[in-house]
Design a protein that fits this description.
The protein is of the alpha+beta class. The protein is built from four helices and three strands.
């Protein structure tokens, strides 16, 4: 692994993940695993008026997955499903298609640009955003608490 993969920005984000823990009464709880590397993430979510009102994370991942989770946790409150989807899609395009880093709410994802050259790490980097989207979707179903 090269220095650009685990840059000081990535390590700073990974060392400071906000909103760690669990919510007492989440609208949805989602667990995601990156099968290739074994990274795990659990996300509790509460929504109000079609926006994220609260979230909590439990993360067992490499520094890249931790950094992406930190960016999500820092900026997701108040976000709509469309904003989370745009962040995920922008991150995926940056990693897989060489697109420019996402702008706006999730612009800090630019720190993960070095992961582009390491496809085995992409799933770990995307875990938090995939979990958030699954949780948001679960809140619109009648039975919303998922494992």
């Amino acid at each position: 692994m090269t220095d650009h993969l685990y840059s000081s920005d990535v390590l700073r984000l990974a060392a400071d993940i906000p909103r760690l823990g669990a919510l007492d009464a989440p609208d949805a709880r989602v667990r995601k695993v990156a099968r290739l590397c074994g990274s795990e993430l659990e996300l509790d979510l509460r929504c109000e008026d079609d926006r994220i009102a609260d979230l909590a994370l439990r993360v067992k991942a490499c520094a890249l997955g931790q950094a992406a989770a930190a960016v999500l946790a820092r900026h997701a409150l108040g976000a709509t499903a469309a904003e989370i989807r745009a962040g995920r899609d922008g991150l995926k395009a940056m990693l897989k298609d060489g697109a420019a880093p996402p702008q706006g709410r999730f612009a800090e994802l630019a720190a993960l640009e070095g992961a582009r050259d390491y496809p085995a790490r992409h799933q770990s980097v995307l875990l938090a955003f995939e979990a958030a989207l699954d949780a948001i979707e679960a809140t619109s179903r009648p039975q919303t608490l998922t494992a």
